[in-house]
Amino acid sequence: MGTRKEELQLARTHFRKLDAEYLEEQKQAQAAREIGLKRRLEDGRKWEELLSASGIEPAKFREHEKADAQRAAEIRNDVVKRLSPVPPAILSSARDSILVNQNAGLVQVAPPGTQSFVLQFVDRSTMGNCGSDAGDVVFPRAETVGSGSGWLDSHTDQAQCGLWFAILWLDLPGGPSNRLSISVCPFLDMHGFYWVRSDDGIFTSKQAETKFSIFTRISQFTLSNSFWSSWVVLDRNSDNIDEEGRIDFTGYATNAKGQAVILGGATVQIEVIAEAYCYSQGSGSHAIMDFQTGNGDGVRIPWVSAEVVDLGTVAATTL
What we know:
This protein is α+β, with helices and mostly antiparallel strands. It contains 3 helices and 12 strands.
């Protein structure tokens, strides 16, 4: 086992490799979507040709779309003003909850044969709009504004903000032939807001979506794959929708609890990712997922709890 500095650097290098692989997957997915977008562009042109041939003037629809977009902009300004600040009572309650857990020692009594740990924050990764560097807090924000009839264009925005944790120098049983069951659960303190709007019509193809998810990833140098668990905190989408609200949560995110079977004798890395995603197509369609704008907004993960159980020595081929 190396020095603490060497162990931390290895963990950071490993996390960056995993994030680069994820980013490449996203690029490939976007390339696949581009094929369909080109087809939609052609469909939209055919619709406008059909409208013109039927004696319906597309310019009249464009006037309506412009007015709808202006109305959406007015609503957006009102929503941001009202929803971005965290209500004082919610913020105070969240701080009390964090203090109570800290004073309780964080680690619960583990079952016999189980080792329990509290994993402290190590580093962070950011893809997209994640706000300024603030230690164990990230500020994911995504916003999209639609335009046109919805046939000819679509817009997406995504922020993936990760916080890294690692089990360092723990006396994990055995060596590479030992199976260990690991269970991790992040403690989350998150405050933000969302808005999603779309008003589809007879000759349009409008839609909007806003989504917020928490992913927990367990990985290990000695394994070629990583183990994911996910919690879709909120997902709102439709071709006819106008919805707004806040997202406030403080406590152990049991829905984002990660579990895996790992190998003994090696460092384990935990990454907890807060992902904001927005999609919109068509004028007046708008989507916001924001943990950044208001005073007190953000996603903080002060610690992750972990439990490790020794499953005994087995042949490596059974893993």
